[in-house]
Amino acid sequence: MILVAALRRLATAVATLFGVAVVVFVLLRVVPGDPVAMMIAPGASPADIAALRARYGLDAPIFTQFWIWLGDLLHGDFGTSISLKLNVLDVLAERLPATLELAIAALVVALAIGGAIAIFGVILRRTLAESLLDAVDGFMLAIPDFVWALAFVLLLGVLWPVFPLSGRIDPTLTVAFATRFYLIESLVTGRFAVFADILSHMVMPTLALALPLAAIVARVLKQALAEAMVQDYVLLARLKGMSETRLVLQETLRNAVGPTLALTGVQFTFLIGGTVIVERIFAYPGIGNMAIDAVINRDLPLIQGLVLVFGALFILVNIAVDLGVAALNPRLRHG
């Protein structure tokens, strides 16, 4: 059943991506602004402008442009970036690993912080400590990620310069990487000094992205744990003398993971989108930072490639979450 559901979701994903491609392609060509006008030198002749438009296929009707672009896309050709003069697919392949490492690190931190707040909140329920944890959770939820980013820049980058303010790695380090996953590769290959430097560059943007998500995880998990704590099997375990900590960790936590996993997956897709502003603040070389430059420069091929990548990531994450929830819930697995 899980395999059938996965195939059904993949078929839906193809249709969804096609719809995304149509919408972004049309919208980019009807909004005001001409990318050629931003590229051409002052005093260029009409013939030069026409030649440049023909080079990027902007002189044909929108319908013709779309089918040419779609045909190239099916052959793995995302086009050439207008502003960078590079192949869009190569640019995306170079920048995407940085964003993925940042987003996954933020997710891990969010799950750790949010899970700890939820578990301790249930164990210490009806005490002053629970009220304090709820206040901390509300405080993290009320502040958006870009405000956290600016606060960390001021506190940990300027007033108390503990972590680097920008970039992904110290430019003075001459290190050769076989992949673009710098953090993972440096850890696997045992270059711990490089790993520590890359990690230090990721601390502030990771925390900025993780704290709002951690607050959501804490609220959902705590509610699920509280509902599980009043079930009959928990009452029976309590009568047998099991401590509150063991009740939460051994009896109720596994039953509360399902709803938390489902919501966390949805929020993770928004977290990937949230990297756009946070990466810009920290000059982090990911696809989020590049997306802002692409919009400013009206780089149509690059924007189209970025939107498709974001759309594919959202769809794949949602499919993975649905399969994970189904695997954890026997009723969904066999239903």
TL;DR?
This protein is mostly helical and 335 residues long. It has helices at 2-30, 35-39, 46-55, 62-74, 88-123, 128-142, 145-159, 182-188, 192-228, 232-239, 244-281, 287-296, 300-328, 330-334.
Describe it for me?
With 335 residues, this protein is an all-alpha fold. The protein has a domain at 97-256 and 265-291: Orthogonal Bundle (MetI-like fold). 77% of the residues lie in helices and 0% in strands. It contains 14 helices and no strands. It has helices at 2-30, 35-39, 46-55, 62-74, 88-123, 128-142, 145-159, 182-188, 192-228, 232-239, 244-281, 287-296, 300-328, 330-334. α5 (88-123) runs antiparallel to α6 (128-142), α7 packs across α11 and α8 (182-188) crosses α9 (192-228). The protein is globular. The model has no long low-confidence stretch (mean pLDDT 84).
List keywords for this structure.
membrane, mainly alpha, BPD_transp_1_N, MetI-like fold, ABC transporter permease, 14 helices
